[in-house]
Amino acid sequence: MMLDKIVQALKARSELAGWSVRHTITHEAQVYLVGQNTEAQRTVMDERYRIEVFRKNDGPDKTQGMGVGDITVLPGVDIQGAIDKASLVAGLVSNPIHTLPASAPIPDVALLDDELKKDTLGTLKKVIDQMLSATSKHAEVRLTSAEGFAEVNTIHHVNSRGVDAEQETTSINLEFVLQSKQGDREVETFREFGRRRAADLNIEAEVEHNARFTLDLIAAGPPPNWQGPVILCDNALVTFVAGDHLTNGVLQSKGSAAAKYAKVSNWEIGQSVFRGEVTGDPLTVWANRCIPYGIASNRFDEEGLPAQRVEFIRDNKLVSFVASQRYADYLQLPPTGAFGSVEIPPGKWESDSLLSEPYVEISLFSWFNPDNITGDFATEIRLGYLVENGVRKPFKGGQLIGNFIDALANVLWSRKTGTFGHYSGPQTARFGNLKIAGE
Amino acid sequence: MTDLKLPASMAELRPTLPHLVAQGQARAPYFSILLSANQNLQIIVNNREERVTERPPYAGTVLSAFDGLTMRERAVGGFAQVDVQKAVQELVQGVQFAKYTPQATPARRGDFATQVQIDPLELSVQEKLDRCRALHRRAKGLDPHIVNVQVSYTESSDYSVFADHNSDLAQGVQRVRLFLVIFVAGEDGQVRYDWETKSAGGGWEKLDFSDAEIRLVIDGALALIGAERIEPGEYQIISAPGVSGTICHESFGHGVETDMFLKERAKAAHFLDKVVGSPLVDIFDDPSLPGELGSYFFDDEGHMASSTQIVEKGIFRRGITDFYSANALGIPRSANGRRQDYSRKAYARMSNTYFGPGTSSLDDILAQVDHGIYLDKWSSGMEDPKGWGIQVTCHYGHEIKDGKITNRVFAPIGISGYVPDVLQSISAVGSELRLEGGGCGKGHKELIAVSAGGPHLLMKARLG
After folding, report:
1. Looking at the predicted structure, is the pLDDT value of residue B451 above 50?
2. Which of A74, A362, A372, A435 to mutate to test the interface with B (most CBs of B within 10 A)?
3. Are strands B167-185 and B108-113 parallel, antiparallel or unpaired?
4. Inter-chain touch B75–A225, beta carbons under 8 Å
5. Integer Cα distance of A222 and B185 in angstroms
């Protein structure tokens, strides 16, 4: 076993103050459709070992510090040579001393779809078939392309402080494009989402939602100028609150110990996260890696820290920074590990009561990507609705303008909740006063 | 002159490729092999800590079998001959391939490497760390409002070998980027920041920061402390080269990737040889530009790099292609079949995409604006090839009054509008062409290195 050889080699290195090794094996199946036809079908096999070594060094002022070096290797490489290289790098820098995670009980978090693990490509093809069948029920729209990715990951993490943990995860991601045409007008919607289990993709509902959006886009008019209540629900709310896999999200960024240590977050434990008065529901947020089958869940994170459900913000006040071992040591905080999913408790409002007119509802953004340090955003709207006098009028375009943190200071949350990949919480939110720059 | 030095395991497998291609092609109408490896180093120096990280490398073999209908691929980690041999068998055995005759192509052979003066691979990690520390030292004490200065260096060495019945190609592409980010805090404790980046297909000779450039970053960050939100509406704008590039990239870059034509996702498909912009507008994609971040010698499907003129004097002429879509649509190839890494499929992707230069100086362009906005710096963009909507977010912009850039700053600023309307409104094009390197995704994934740019442009657009 190469992992054993790496561990033995690391144990024999007297110059190291600590080390960790992460062995990852990935099997992936990919299917790509153009229309109903398979454009490409791929299988991928990848195996790698990430070695991280820690050395104590003297800094420029002769105080002792610590350096970290890492290297990722494929099976069969020269282990000693790789460790030499990582150790050399670890000797170049001298940061304040920190520790590695110690051995601790690892919770049993459900992360595996057994069927997907057994037959990755077969399960993916079934999902694709379900999607084709679901789209065929909506005669007014057509599927123009789709991509599916199914993956099985096996991770074994070992470190010099006794962590020896394994986890197996599955994930399945789907993208599809629906189009509709009326006269010269052609429109499309694009949906991309992932879950750990194929069954949680809820394909029928996803296709139905997006078919409706596609048809509404056909009827969409120009965007209004608007300042007032804005409703977000389901996937639009998830993107707004929890970010996507490209943007870390404002909550995750401002609440990270790394940002605090770097002096780019001005949040303080015990203080309000808002810069003004809170006029909506009080904000409470959990950072949760324990949600069964959550796409941001795990048994342990990149450092080997066990999964936790961390009370992050309670009644508008920061309770804890989300901290890796390193930054927890630097700021003398308890280590929490990675953020995981954003969890918000149920609100007190029935969903219908949040829909008092007039309001604007936004269903699709081009890409909601606020500035993670300031929270400011100006983002294009792909599909929204102006709802007034009992009429729900779709529009496309215009920009939603504001500040993420200020927006959360004036929001009402629904009692009804749902779990959507990396967000668990109210399904509907009414933001009291947001601005839309229309035409 | 830089010689190509392939990783040893890749170089060892290369001589066996003709044999493996022949085995694959004995069953599949077209068969190709791509060996692809990259190594990445990142160095971060800020006021609080330093980090040297080897970003996860990728190294693997892609076997592709094509019958005119479906591209079947097997991607294997590493370059072990026994694994690749086995994968060839598994990929083609038992498959009923359709009949297909690949298009005749000229023989393509050669080894290529990025030309560098100060080769990052010849510098030790210590030397590169010291260069980052030196830049950090120059910036960190320059203003009392500074709370952190971060210098971030990344280097990426990409190697690939491509073989099919008619090709034996190898390349080494060296890319470097250096980011300087300066964070300042105002009296209210709110943090603002600005940055400057240097990037190149090349070496450290492209990464020098002048004192004036450092000062501009500090001034940019400080100006943001008092920045206002812009009153939404239509404005006369002048886009800085980076902003011009992002508009170009999101509109007639993503919008003309021909895999999107095939999927009927691109409005541009209906505008071939039609007017899409003002006669001042020329748009190119060119992976053969020397020294740019998105440059390479051949794409991941073995097509040799050359320039593609996408828009000529406001008329849309052609898109950028990958192998599959060009084949399915029956259109000529361009060298734009690119993969994020060996584990992902090839798509039609941009390389270096830019507006062609015009004849106006910036002063001449400014003189045409009574009241408008100078958009200094972009922060993000998203494509909309079907709807031709623009979403480009700018980190900040300055007010222009009576032909002069004032100290009044707005941030952030979103640009929106309908692509042809915005391009039609271009009324002056600057003479100085500049490209900026960055990362590009296809939708929300498939990240690759590209650059985009152009000259200063004078146009009208909705800001918010």
Report:
1. yes
2. A74
3. parallel
4. no
5. 39
For chain B, how big is the Rg over CA atoms in Å?
A: 24
Which residues are registered as beta bridge partners of B198? B178
Distance between alpha carbon B158 and the CA centroid of its chain, in Å?
A: 14
Looking at the DSSP bridge assignments, the partners of residue A181 are A186
Residue A290 has pLDDT above 70, yes or no: yes
Residue A215, both tokens: 């048809």
pTM, entire model: 0.93
Structure tokens at B260: 């999107």
**Residue of A44, A50, A125 best to disrupt the B interface, most CBs of B under 10 A:** A44
Considering only the beta carbons, identify the residue of B188, B191, B393 that sits closest to A264.
B191
What order do you get walking across the sheet with B283-285 strand by strand? B315-316, B308-312, B283-285, B352-355, B445-454, B434-442
Distance from C-alpha of B240 to C-alpha of B222, rounded to nearest angstrom: 20
For residue B1, pLDDT beyond 50:
no
Out of A208-212, A253-257, B43-47, B385-389, pick the least confident: B385-389
pLDDT in tens, B222-232: 999 999 999 99
Residue B104 confidence (pLDDT): 86
Q: Which two tokens stand for residue B207?
A: 């990464």
Pairs across A and B, CB distance < 8 A: 195
Determine which helix (DSSP H) or strand (DSSP E) holds A387, and give its type and residue range: strand A376-388
The rounded percent of chain B whose pLDDT value lies above 90 is 91
Three-state secondary structure along B279-300?
Answer: CCCCEEECCCCCCCCCCCCECC
- In angstroms, the CA A438 to CA A380 distance is 10
Q: Which residues contact B85 (CB under 8 A, 6 or more apart)?
A: B20
Q: Which residues contact A422 (CB under 8 A, 6 or more apart)?
A: A238, A242, A294, A295, A296, A340, A341, A342
Q: Which residue of A has its CA nearest to B414?
A: A378
DSSP letters for B158-204: EEEEEEETTEEEEEEEEEEEEEEEEEEE-TT--EEEEEEEEEESS-G
Chain B residues in contact with A43 by the CB 8 A cut-off are 73-75
Look at residue B444 in the predicted model and tell me its pLDDT: 66
3-state secondary structure of A335: coil
Q: Are B416 and A177 in contact (CB < 8 Å)?
A: no
What tokens appear for B359 in the block? 């004849």
- Minimal CA–CA distance to B58: which of B73, B74, B77? B77
CB B238 within 8 A of CB B247: no
Taking the C-alpha atoms of residue B25 and residue A213, their distance in angstroms, rounded to an integer, is: 45
Q: Which residues of B touch A38 (CB under 8 A)?
A: 70
Nearest to A112 by CA among A66, A154, A53, A77: A154
Structure tokens of B419? 């692509």
What is the distance between the alpha carbons of residues A380 and B393, in angstroms, rounded to a whole number?
Answer: 9
Residue where the block lists tokens 């990409």: B158
Instruction: Give the integer Cα–Cα distance in Å for A24 and A42.
Output: 20
Count of residues in chain B: 464
- Decide: B195 and B180 in contact? Cβ < 8 Å: yes
Nearest to B77 among A70, A74, A89 (CB): A74
ipTM rounded to 2 decimals? 0.91
Element (H, E) at A288: strand A285-288
Q: What are B39-52's pLDDT values in tens digits?
A: 999 999 999 999 99
CB B416 within 8 A of CB B464: yes
First-last CA distance in chain A: 64
What's the pLDDT tens digit per position in B236-267? 999 999 999 999 999 999 999 999 999 999 99
